[in-house]
Structure formats: C-alpha cells, structure tokens
Amino acid sequence: MPGVRLAFQAPFFHEFVLQLPKSPERVVKALAKQKILAGIPLKAYDRQLKDSLLVAVTENRTREEIDAFAHHLASIVS
User: Fold this and answer.
1) Which domain holds residue 65?
2) Cut 0.85: pTM above it
3) I need a labelling partner for 72 at 20 to 30 A (CA). Which of 41, 49, 55, 63 fits?
C-alpha cells in the first residue's frame, strides 16, 4: 500500500505498528465512519511514533473484514 509501511521489522503475532502518511487520528476517525475500529494512534504514548498506528488482528476477524480494513485504509491514505 503506497505510503504505508511496517514501523518495525521484527516478527509479530497479532499486533503490529503501521507508519502512515496521514495523521493516524484522522485515519481512525475516517475508518470509524465505515464502522471499522482501526487501532490506536501511538503519539500519546511516544512522540517519536506520531505517525504510527497500532493494529491488532486476531482469529476473530474474517478475511472479508481484514480486506475491508485494507481497502478503506488505502483509499483514506491515498
């Protein structure tokens, strides 16, 4: 996805951090309008992560839900 990348290259299980080209707070609000709980903006916890979003994906999410998240995220950040 252009402009979006993993913040850390270490292996992960259910949670990972994305660096976004737009404000994570705005991305979360835009995805909420699509009824998607996007994740947690990390700026409040570490100013160096001001462009980062903590995302968690578990076995409770369907492939369709994950695809919808990716689709809407791509359209928001483009």
Assistant:
1) 5-77
2) yes
3) 49
Full 3-state SS string of 45-69 = CCHHHCCEEEEECCCCCCHHHHHHH
Q: What is the pLDDT of residues 14-30, one digit of tens each?
A: 999 999 999 999 999 99
Cβ neighbours of residue 12 closer than 8 Å, sequence gap 6 or more: none
Q: What angle do CA 15, 69, 77 make, to 5 degrees?
A: 100
Relative to beta strand 5-6, strand 40-41 is unpaired
For residue 24, the tally of other CB atoms under 10 A from its CB is 22
